Amino acid sequence: MKWTQLPLGPLQTNAYIFENADKEAIIFDPGGNGRELVSWLQDRSLKPLAILLTHAHFDHIGAVDEVRDAFSCPVYIHEKEQYWLTDPVQNGSQRFLGNEGIIVKKADKIIKNEYTLTIGSFRFEMFETPGHSPGSISYYCKEENIVFSGDVLFEQSIGRTDLAGGNEQQLLSSIHRKLLELPEETVVACGHGRPTTIGKEMDSNPFLSGF
């Protein structure tokens, strides 16, 4: 399997395309530029099997409907943020984009707890990692040594907690109890910026010391 990082949308949020040898793919957080993303996928003859959302902030969901409609693939979201997709106030788009609020159709699959998600040949352990937002989910693929964590953990930083439902202590707890328990060589596919590893952040992330 291989993965590709594509910064999309107004905040250049990282979407990730995770594909197997059969050209099947999982799409994480398609944040914008929907037409271009659909063309990118079609040009490579990729067949998306699902859209997995780490959370429902506007910059992570802007191209959801265009990708879903083009490939007839289901959208997964945590139950605590299922209604954010249709609400520009809760997903933050009204605050940051004004009249250009983002409204996305309801998700097809609602995540209610932690479990192992299998879609075709893809398998992910799902961790509830709230703090940046109440329904943040991290998707860990043990076989490929990577976790798609959205805006929970960044290179030398952590997710912001000043938006609706944010809680810094909860976020730090999520990172320490879920992500830092993963092998140190695990790649952290962040929602913004460059990917990092669990080991690097354990050693040098200034936000994680003293918790």
Automatic annotation (TrEMBL):
InterPro entries: MBL_Glyoxalase_II, Metallo-B-lactamas, RibonucZ/Hydroxyglut_hydro. SUPFAM superfamilies: Metallo-hydrolase/oxidoreductase (SSF56281). Residues 12-192 form the Metallo-beta-lactamase domain. Its cofactor is Zn(2+). Keywords: Hydrolase, Metal-binding, Zinc. GO terms for molecular function: hydrolase activity; metal ion binding. PANTHER family: HYDROXYACYLGLUTATHIONE HYDROLASE GLOC (PTHR46233:SF3). This is MBL fold metallo-hydrolase. It comes from Halalkalibacter suaedae. The lineage of its organism: Bacteria, Bacillati, Bacillota, Bacilli, Bacillales.
